[in-house]
Amino acid sequence: MSKSSTVVANLLRSAVWIAAVALAAPTWAANQLNGIRLHDAPDSTRVVLDTSQASSYKIFTMTRPHRVVIDLRDTTPAFKAPQFSSRVVERIRSSARRKRHYRVVLDLRQAARAQELVLKPIAPYGHRLVIDLFPTDGGAEPSREPVRAPRGKREVVVAIDAGHGGEDPGAIGAGRVYEKKVVLAIARAVKDKLDAMPGLRGALVRDGDYYVPLRKRTEIARGKDVRADVFLSIHADAFRMPSVHGASVFALSERGASSEMARWLAASENRSDLIGGVSGSWVSLDDVDAPVAQVLVDLSMDHKMEASIELGEAVLGSLADVAKLHKNRVEQAGFAVLKSPDVPSILIETGFISNPAEARRLANPSYQRRIAGAIADGVQGYLLANPPADTLLASLIDEGFVRYVIKRGDTLSEVAQRNRVSMRSLRALNSLVGDRIRAGQVLLIPLGQGSGG
Ligand SMILES: [Zn+2]
Question: Do 278 and 164 have their domain in common?
């Protein structure tokens, strides 16, 4: 992504009109405001104005009550007022001003710092003026679950990154199935499955309909609130030919792609920041600190690549139980979101949303749960074979079995299936008569029954 594609300016420079592009459109063609959208993220709220051309605008904030005023020069409205509920924006008003200017007012529920971002057209959008609102009263910081540390040992943390979100819908399939929605549902289900597994915990990188810059995704996963041991990016992309279908798994390649399809998908995914809209310090890793990144990458890449491919094989193996595979081996290409040097990272294409039958399946909650179960099983298989040191999982494996605390809704047959042991051996090991188990009960589960698919 080139820096020239975005113009980032701080607010309170209200005295002058800011022209988004040096050569404004011919004077006879007025700008048109075609729509307003809102996306709430954990730490900010994004307001997007869709316009027919690059806008000339002024933005300023006012207090008592808190509001942000956006004046668009020589602009006429052609939009329906958006339906929304937002933590930061209470309502949106708009009105025509003198000299064909048009004013949009965002009435805020709390004080917020506003930062604007001008985006050039990129499919599926035309010109966009984006205003990010960062609450200044505090209280809006995301509260991520702290890492639990039962009995002094930490759980293995799996970061689950639902691709796209907010301004970036991802691929849109037949029947208006949105990739960003499908992958969030699958990511949440993967977290539920992992949380039910002994010694493992899932952490969602994105947990709502908002955009997270590619570089921020890996930073969230590696940050102190998450400290992920494994990184999964979940997708359901489109391809040029609707006949293409099936699940596939990708790892990073620093030296070219393993196939034309892998190259094409990586290029498509790496455009995500342009569509989603990225400002300030989150401009792409490739531009900003390539030298630093390169050193880190060289140091640990060989080991990490091997681990990523092993992880990918485990997931591919268990996906084969529930889905057709597009390719039987882990593919590689230069996906920006996988450039986390020290964490085994894979990108999972759960299917191609451009295939009508697959789009229907991917939109189905029970299929989403089955795919999620297969992903979690594969990850568990990999981690049982490669438990990170000093984790609860590693010590359980040393003891030859896993302790599992029964959760509400668990059944003995599910627990047996999930851990690939027979009901009979579970009964014997835990002195169970029949299949009755209760929440809070601790079961011993033997290891080494060929998990990992
Ligand atoms: Zn995608």
Answer: yes
